[in-house]
Design goal:
The chain is mostly helical and about 350 residues long. It contains nine helices and no strands. Helix 3 runs parallel beside helix 9, helix 4 runs parallel beside helix 7 and helix 7 runs antiparallel to helix 8. It is elongated and about 85 Å long.
């Protein structure tokens, strides 16, 4: 038979009509091209697409992977204050600090200009820190969406692999068939690569936020030194540097409400900054722990499963489904918190 032995896929009626319309030489050329394409497509399915320096998993462990995903979602979409909430509090205090700059600039202090310049730089540092904190939250929410999408894709691929094979279409001739186990492992490897990239991006952003907050604290110390030289009384017990300066220099009784609002914001600014520093430090610790867990997971699954775990496919499916549900719940909590933050930030 011109198109192969009886074990190959049969031609559809459309293929037969096309074949009859061709002469023998054209059919031979078409047969060679078709065979070449089939061989090439079969070869492509076995090509190792693993990034350089990375080892592919030999078996899947979605349970351990979704545990890491849950840790990320619980921290960034949990009940505690997020980075964006702290960023808005810092941003509000920025405005009060800007008023303080004006008060200092027009004061009779000996080093009024130097102190005002340091405060202006501090305002810029605070703005950078606030932006950086919001970027961290945005990246974390994007990470949750990415994980959710990868898990949904994996679930659909595995379910399709388990579906009964129906009538083969004409296109089935061009596709190679993978086993369910291959589909599971392929999607597990993709999910691990996505998780690794997400953790690396979040760690980089958290370090940037940490650096911005550190600059804020260092700038405050420089301002404190100048204020001390000017004999401005500072509430050392509570570390209320800026509020003490505002009390001494910004007491414009013509606008008592603004004065009191600025005083409250400046009293809390250093506290907000310290809370943000603690939040970022904890985020970094958690992210590095997750990264270590991923490294351990990759090391385990890149070796033969000597324990003979042989996790059934239905267990993988159930685990992925549970992971998807947790990610969706986390996303809902995060969206609700963002809405609350925007409402609070408007006042």
């Amino acid at each position: 038979m011109l198109w192969g032995n009886s074990g190959t896929n049969s031609l559809t009626s459309n293929h037969v009509k096309v074949a009859k319309a061709l002469n023998t030489e054209e059919i031979i050329v078409l047969q060679e091209l078709l065979c070449s394409h089939i061989l090439r497509s079969q070869t492509l399915t076995t090509v190792d697409t693993t990034p350089v320096g990375e080892t592919n998993a030999l078996w899947a462990d979605f349970s351990s992977l979704t545990d890491v995903q849950k840790s990320l979602s619980d921290y960034f979409a949990g009940e505690g204050p997020g980075a964006s909430e702290l960023a808005i509090k810092i941003a509000k205090a920025e405005l009060a600090t800007s008023d303080l700059v004006v008060a200092v600039r027009f004061s009779t202090l000996r080093m009024a200009d130097e102190l005002a310049d340091s405060l202006t730089t501090f305002v810029h540092d605070a703005s950078d820190a606030g932006d950086s904190l919001q970027d961290l939250d945005a990246k974390a929410m994007g990470a949750i969406d990415s994980i959710l999408n990868v898990n949904i894709w994996a679930l659909k691929a595995i379910e399709e692999a388990q579906a009964p094979v129906g009538v083969l279409s004409a296109l089935s001739l061009w596709k190679s068939k993978k086993t369910t186990e291959e589909i599971v492992n392929e999607n597990f490897n993709e999910a691990m690569r996505t998780q690794d990239k997400i953790l690396s991006r979040l760690i980089t952003q958290a370090k940037a936020s940490q650096g911005d907050l550190k600059r804020m604290k260092e700038r405050l110390q420089a301002i404190r030194d100048l204020a001390t030289k000017e004999n401005i009384h500072i509430n050392v017990e509570h570390g209320e540097l800026l509020s003490s300066m505002w009390t001494a220099l910004g007491s414009n009784k013509q606008d008592l409400q603004r004065y009191q609002t600025n005083l409250e914001l400046l009293v809390n600014l250093e506290k907000f900054t310290d809370v943000a520093k603690t939040h970022i430090a904890q985020a970094l610790t958690n992210l590095k722990t997750m990264q270590a867990q991923m490294k351990d997971l990759r090391a385990r699954v890149s070796q033969p499963d000597i324990a003979g775990t042989n996790i059934p496919v239905n267990v993988h499916v159930r685990t992925i489904m549970d992971g998807i549900q947790r990610m969706k719940e986390g996303r809902i909590r995060a969206r609700a918190r963002e809405s609350d933050i925007r409402t609070v930030g408007a006042y």
